[in-house]
Design brief:
The structure holds two protein chains of two kinds.
Chain A: H1 2-28, H2 40-77, H3 89-109, H4 114-117, H5 124-133, H6 144-182, H7 189-229, H8 232-237, E1 241-242, E2 253-254, H9 257-288, H10 291-306, H11 309-328, H12 345-369, H13 373-381, H14 386-415, H15 418-423, H16 441-450, H17 458-489
Antiparallel strand pairs in A: 1-2
Helix pairs in contact in A: 1-2, 1-6, 2-6, 2-7, 3-5, 3-6, 7-17, 9-12, 9-14, 10-12, 11-12, 12-14, 13-14, 14-17, 16-17
Chain B: H1 2-9, H2 23-61, E1 66-74, H3 78-86, H4 90-108, H5 117-124, H6 127-137, E2 146-151, H7 154-161, H8 177-188, E3 192-196, H9 198-202, H10 217-248, H11 253-265, H12 270-284, H13 292-317, H14 320-328, H15 333-361, H16 365-369, H17 384-389, H18 395-403, H19 409-439
Antiparallel strand pairs in B: 1-2, 1-3
Classes of the chains: A mainly alpha, B mainly alpha.
Protein name (chain B): Phosphate transport system permease protein PstA
Family (chain B): Belongs to the binding-protein-dependent transport system permease family. CysTW subfamily.
Transmembrane segments (chain B): 37-58, 224-245, 265-285, 291-309, 341-362, 414-435
């Protein structure tokens, strides 16, 4: 893999720069370290930093920009009449880049040689067979224009990569050379290096911002793309979710309301389980339990929070679902036949509630502990019992924090994926019956993006609109929760 | 306490003794007891769920670690071999020879049960192919007794582990009641037995029709490469970001923006990170689909807030006197941080990092979106570099794929996979706890 080699070469240049910069500085001071402005290692680091940072920055930018540039150039040369009914330029480009990858694969396996692969007059029928022989994933039949575009794509990306390697190495050498040239006794190497390190630190801290920007951009662009293909009003107010499977044709109904209802219903069931249990557990642990009980019970409860959600999903699908069917289902213990199958709102809600218990309990525990002892003592002094103190003094004082904790738990429940994918079912419906299968926003994101539908179809793009809904919903809940917690937190300090 | 409440509760001008509890006090004390019982009940419910979960995992997962095999001692003469090779249905000839050998072995152990080739095929699968392959590869073994170990079919496996039972059993083309009698007889004769299933730990995912051959090894390797990416990206970036925010950042709008972003990212649902990975890394940057390096990048972004929050806490726990002493001796601020504060905070940082990694290891949803589903885990990567870019799965995604398959025999594998996943998580958490206990300093 040439990329790894390129990085290693840059690092080697940097190492050489370090050694040379350091020795040049020492030489300029006549070997007397006291004559130098900074410690000798700073002169070396200066050269090394100047070699590595610009070169790797260029490498990353180039790697991002090159495919974009090539795509736009090639896509401009494809004639419009190639784009068949129900297809798009994006789909055609995907085919071109797949074919180019297939050519690379075939050449590396020796099925075809380089000359044939780049021959514009090559027979495309024979080429299709060869590519399939090499195990490349290509469409059933490559057409002549697509093959030629793929060949251009290949040659452009090969040239691009070659130019990139040379440019990166030149930049690294120049940087190292500049750093070495700077090394003299008067040069304030430490200040320069520390300034550089500081810039790197800021860059690392900015990644959090970049991530948010990336999330928002990837959601917004694809959502806009989706609303171009599908009316926004039908997405937001549609009462039916029935995506057609791609290839079979027909129009899809992609209304978000049934999914939102399923999400909210399952979250409500989860909170009905988690809030009382979590809250009472927190009250007991912080107000009643001795230190020994606390030392055992608190970590054990928190184990529930450390278990991956896939485990809960499997637990819902294979243990809780069948158990609930044997109670509420046909021929069950209660003799009612409310529940048809294991996958139901109550299954997913119950298991999600179990997952959220430690979440509610540890947050509430912290908040209850933060209520000043003086308030309890005052209540006891007036003759209240412990439970009366908790109910009438401690809980009201901690209420904003507890509400915040519950809102955070609700946002976790809304964003939870694996439990609902495995435990809640796949049918989208608007119903009040908790024993029926329903589905959620997250479950549909998974199913729409892991299916066979192409990224450019509304059936796949709807996942981004769903993701946007989810992002806005959870972000709103989090901000609201933090607002409540912050606003009332310092009331007693 | 109780005296106090009795005092206050005692009505005025009462002639009753203080030692006698009146109705109102009794009611209040009862409410107190009830409230306390609710608390105990809540903890009990929480712990009960934990126990149920653990029991369910182990009860359902342990069968994945055993497999049922048939031990058959079997000799094939040169003539038989040539005869079989000359026939049109070669594997059938081998099967016949095998059945003969099995029959004699059964007769020797005093079992007399009629059986035909079909039932052998239902129990052990198509044995002819396996035997032929072996003898074609080792022709020098011809004429010598060789003991074969043949994996039983998944339904026989289920019968041996108790998943398939006799009551309510219905004959199907996969297994009949008569076959179960034969299995019992074979077990008595010591021919069929269960053994530890190494293939489950080292193997790769199998096709949908072969639950017995499915293993988690390849996806463990996928998870390993992902964790390498996460470790080598999120630790330096997270530590650098925390150092900036904790030690150098001026109080201004940009710093506030970063802080708000970090706390929000910590609460963004993991599936949204999957969408980010799909749109940015695969659609926009054209990185390879299903590659552990992309999974690693996505999980890095997801883990960063966790690592930053814990790193900042441990940097904050280093007392200012350390910084002041370093500065007083002439160190620059950068030197005081990198030479003194950071080493002292390192145990806490590593603990936080390991916990962040454990979280990332168990994450499933984003991996499904970038294509790291179970069935791409078909083998080990050829080289170290290929490990990052070749399509592979990860443990939780593999478990999901098994759980979503129709054949119930895969459920055992899913539970077994969970045991392995939890063992990794447990190890990581124990390391984190040991690090914290051993090295964390209280100032």
């Amino acid at each position: 893999m040439p990329l790894l080699w390129l990085i290693l070469i840059v690092l080697a240049i940097a190492a050489a720069g370090y050694v040379l910069g350091r020795s040049r500085a020492l030489a300029s001071a006549g070997g007397d370290i006291r004559q130098l402005h900074s410690l000798p290692s700073y002169y070396g680091s200066n050269a090394a930093l100047k070699a590595v940072v610009p070169a790797l920055l260029l490498l990353v930018l180039w790697l991002i920009a090159q495919p974009l540039y090539i795509n736009s150039v090639i896509s401009g040369t494809l004639p419009d009449e190639l784009i068949s009914e129900g297809s798009s330029r994006g789909l055609l480009m995907a085919e071109v880049s797949r074919t180019a990858q297939g050519l690379d694969l075939a050449v590396s396996q020796g099925v075809i040689d380089e000359g044939v692969a780049s021959d514009p007059a090559a027979d495309f029928n024979a080429m299709t067979d060869r590519l399939k022989q090499a195990g490349a994933i290509v469409t059933s039949q490559i057409t002549q224009p697509v093959l030629n575009a793929a060949q251009r794509y290949r040659s452009m990306s090969h040239t691009g990569t070659a130019i990139m390697s040379i440019a990166v190495i030149i930049i690294a050498v120049l940087g190292a050379f500049y750093g070495i040239r700077q090394s003299s006794a008067q040069f304030r190497a430490r200040n320069v290096v520390e300034q550089g390190v500081r810039v790197l630190l800021v860059a690392a801290a900015s990644i959090a911002v970049l991530t948010t920007v990336g999330i928002v951009l990837s959601l917004v662009f694809n959502t806009i793309e989706f609303f171009r293909l599908y009316p926004a009003s039908e997405f937001f107010f549609g009462l039916s979710w029935a995506p057609s499977f791609s290839g079979r044709g027909g129009s899809s109904e992609l209304g978000v309301l049934p999914l939102l209802w399923g999400t909210i219903y399952i979250s409500i069931v989860a909170l009905i389980v988690a809030v009382p249990v979590g809250l009472f557990a927190a009250i007991y642990l912080s107000e009643y339990a001795g230190s020994k009980v606390r030392a055992v019970a608190k970590p054990l409860l928190e184990v529930l929070a450390g278990i991956p959600t896939i485990v809960y999903g499997l637990f819902a699908l294979l243990t809780v679902g069948p158990l609930l069917v044997s109670i509420f289902g046909d021929g069950g213990v209660l003799g009612v036949s409310w529940q048809g199958g294991g996958r139901a709102v109550i299954t997913a809600g119950l298991v999600m509630g179990i997952m959220l218990i430690p979440f509610v309990s540890s947050l509430s525990d912290d908040i209850i502990n933060a209520v000043p002892q003086a308030m309890r003592d005052g209540s006891y002094g007036l003759g209240a019992t412990k439970s009366e103190t908790i109910k009438q003094v401690v809980l009201p004082a901690a209420l904003p924090g507890i509400v915040g904790a519950i809102l955070l738990a609700a946002s976790r429940a809304i964003g939870e994926t694996m439990i609902v994918v495995l435990g809640a079912g796949a049918a989208a419906r608007l119903s009040l019956n908790p024993f029926e299968a329903m589905t959620t926003v997250t479950a549909k994101i998974v199913s729409q993006l892991t299916g066979d539908s192409d990224f450019a179809s509304p059936e796949a793009l709807v996942a981004f609109a769903l993701g946007m809904t989810l992002f806005v919903l959870t972000l709103g809940l989090n901000v609201f929760a933090l607002y409540i917690v912050r606003k009332y937190r310092e009331q007693y300090d | 306490m109780s005296d106090m409440s009795m005092d206050s509760a005692a009505p005025r001008r009462s002639s009753k003794s203080l030692h006698e509890v009146d109705a109102r006090t009794r009611r209040r004390n009862a409410a107190e007891t009830r409230f306390k019982a609710c608390g105990i009940g809540a903890i009990a419910i929480g712990l009960f769920f934990l126990v149920v979960l653990v029991v369910a995992i182990f009860r359902s997962g342990l069968p994945a670690f055993t497999q049922t095999v048939l031990d058959v001692e079997f000799a094939l003469t040169q003539e038989q071999y040539e005869d079989a090779e000359s026939q049109l249905f070669k594997t059938k000839a081998y099967s016949q020879a095998f059945n003969g050998a099995l029959k004699t072995q059964l007769d020797e152990s005093g079992v007399t049960l009629p059986f035909d080739e079909a039932s052998i095929e239902r129990i052990a699968g198509k044995v002819g192919g396996t035997i032929r392959e072996y003898f074609r590869a080792n022709e020098d073994q011809l004429g010598q007794p060789t003991s074969f170990q043949l994996a039983a079919s998944s339904r026989v496996d289920g019968y041996m582990t108790g998943r398939v039972t006799r009551d309510g059993f219905q004959d199907s083309r996969f297994l009949t009641l008569a076959d179960l009698d034969l299995v019992d007889a074979l077990e008595d004769a010591g021919i069929i037995r269960t053994q530890f299933n190494w293939n489950f730990i080292t193997g790769a995912d199998s096709g949908v029709d072969n639950p017995g051959g499915a293993g988690i090894g390849a996806s463990v390797v996928g998870s390993f490469f992902m964790m390498l990416v996460v470790l080598f990206l999120s630790l330096p970036i997270g530590v650098a970001a925390s150092i900036y925010l904790e030690e150098f950042a001026p109080r201004n709008r940009f710093t506030d923006l970063i802080e708000v972003n970090i706390s929000n990212l910590a609460a963004v649902p993991s599936i949204v990170f999957g969408i980010l990975g799909l749109a940015v890394f695969i659609q926009f940057m054209h990185l390879p689909q299903s590659a552990p390096v992309v999974g690693g990048l996505v999980l890095t972004l997801m883990t960063l807030p966790t690592i930053i929050i814990s790193t900042r806490a441990s940097l904050n726990a280093v007392p200012p006197s350390i910084r002041d002493a370093a500065l007083g001796l002439g160190a620059s601020r950068m030197q005081s941080v990198f030479h003194h504060v950071l080493p002292l905070a390192m145990p806490g940082i590593l603990t936080g990092t390991i916990i962040g990694l454990a979280q990332a290891l168990g994450e499933t949803a984003p991996l499904l979106l970038i294509g790291m589903v179970g069935f791409v885990a078909r083998g080990y990567p050829d080289s170290f570099i290929d490990g990052f870019v070749e399509p592979n799965s990860a443990m939780p995604a593999q478990i999901y794929t098994w759980a979503a398959r129709a054949d119930a025999a895969f459920y055992d594998k899913a539970w077994g996979g969970i045991i392995i996943l939890l063992m990794f998580l447990l190890t990581m958490n124990i390391i984190a706890i040991i690090l914290r206990r051993r090295f964390e300093r209280r100032w």
